[in-house]
Amino acid sequence: MIDEDILFSEYNKIIPRYIDLGRSLQQAFQTLLYSANLDVHLIDSRPKSFESFIDKIKRKGYKDPFQETEDICGVRIVCFYQSDMEKISQLIHSEFDVKEYSNKAVSSELDKFGYRSDHFILTIKKDWLKAPNYRGLDGLKAEVQVRTILMHAWANLSHELAFKKEDLPDEYMRILYRLSALFEMADDQFDHLRNGLKGNKLTPQRYLNKSSAWGLKGKEAIQRLISRPVQPRILANEFMVGLDQGKYNISDLTDLIYNLSRVKTDDVCELIEYLNISIIKAEFSKTNLSVYANLLAVVKHSKCGINYVDGLTPDFEIIFSRVCNGTGSDLRNIMEALFMNDKMQLWRELTDENLQEIINVSTLNQLNNLLTDALKSKNKTSKQLGSDIATKLVNLDLSELMKKSNLSEVSMFNNAALTLKPQLEKEIFEQIFPYLEDIIESEPDETKIISKISLILRDFQKLRGFSEISHFAYRLLQKITQLDLLPYIQSSKEGLVHLIYWAIMIDKNISRKWFYKIDKHIWIDKILDSSEDEAFWIIWNIWQVEQTLACSFINEDSIRDKMATTPYGVCVLIFCGISIENTCIIPSQSTYNINESDLTKFILQLKVLCLPSNQDMAINVRSKIDLVKINEKIQKSLILHPTKELFMKILDDFEKITNYGQ
């Protein structure tokens, strides 16, 4: 007997992981198909609904539903041609662990027509699971369906009609078979038509259907070739002549190869073989690095592949000299060019001395671009490359780079490097710490200084969470609180609340001394200038470590009036000993999945309900919430949080007053 309530509870626990799996697979297929130069109509994913899940369990008689149901996560890929299905199938088998594979077309009877589709049951490969967006997906299965756009239409139409073949009279079955045969024939004919068009000798105008990249000279020069078919050998010769005459450039060649690879893949390799490679490589010295990198990328993703990229890649010494002599010193572009080769041979040739020379002609912002590109990439190899680069960089001498960098650039570098490789915290700290004062003074926008300082503290401390204080965050806080931050606090537009929060998390004693270093009237002016929500958090965070100071703010009539305008401000007044009678505050009922910030506000509302004047309201609220779950939320969310004991006492007081009322 199936207990649907228990199953529903278990289903709700696991379904978020399957939703993440579907989204991750959808993104992965978008990247893989794009890299393989395969255009598709649709890639989508969906989690199996609970109703469908229950129906399948009952129909199949599953004993272990969550292990035996293999399509809780479903992904569908709809392509244009049948011949692309085979390419996509090969890609899936090479990139994923395929547990089961079935082809509906192969399994259909010879005299029957209808739905044709490839079905895969697969899991993520183990080496993918190290990437942040694949963590927690180990062992989860997904069903991937691949079909053509015509079969997709057939499936949707037959689903809309909602027929069962065994219930159809013969005359309708005959109509059904005729229709399905037409769909299958149309699929075959579209493939035949595409292959037939590929067999034609196309003119350069058709090769260059995306001719915008060619520019005016390229268009004019190519006009004389439009009227006649062109073999790859002739086209290569014409391009080399035009290159010599200054009519064409590397960007034109990139566009030519790209468009040719989409309509006549076999001709691309022949075209490249007839090009004068030594002359093409000589153009590297006159070409923007990113433009040449695009050429290598297009060749790599064509049928020719990596072998032809090796032939077109300039010698390492030439690439390196371009960076170090000040020409094209954008580090991101040079690394893009190096990374186009899957073997990364050129990257391995970058010694520490080479990289140090590159750093000497670069800016920290250029390093940031390189690291953030790797950080944003969905490609696991790119992330690993970014991690390797970060490791090399922080072990070199960045002192001159740090001296001429501002706080925004250093904050971005700190975040990207720590995210790519958290184990580098000591090395990164040692690069930043000696120059922190100069870095702060170099920031052109004073209003951002407090915000950026709080981000640097956060990035070091978040590696440890609440359970352990980061030694490096502690030392940074010590130094920061010794600096004169008063002008920056006065001019800051954001970040003060976060700076106070992270300072308290790192060390209460340092924070307490720092709070008193700033004149009380400066604090009051800042609180009055802040929004009601920010004002609440400033006072509440200070109250956690120095109640006397927080209460002295509240004794100011202007701040008291500001706090009295919001429920959370009223809570602060109560904590500071201000008696508030008949306060109408009703806490949110959605307390079980809220974040730490909202949990804090919710518990403070319960404190207000503990007032004798609010007892009736407290009893009413008690009937709508689950104190056990709220207790669990506090225990889980605020493991070593400074307010945990206080919150537990509030919860205990609330339970007592509501029990007394009952």
From TrEMBL:
A Pfam short name: RelA_SpoT
InterPro entries referenced in this protein's UniProt entry, alphabetically: NT_sf, RelA_SpoT
GO biological process, one term: guanosine tetraphosphate metabolic process
Domain RelA/SpoT: residue ranges: 45-169
Name of the protein in its database record: RelA/SpoT domain-containing protein
Originating species: Candidatus Argoarchaeum ethanivorans
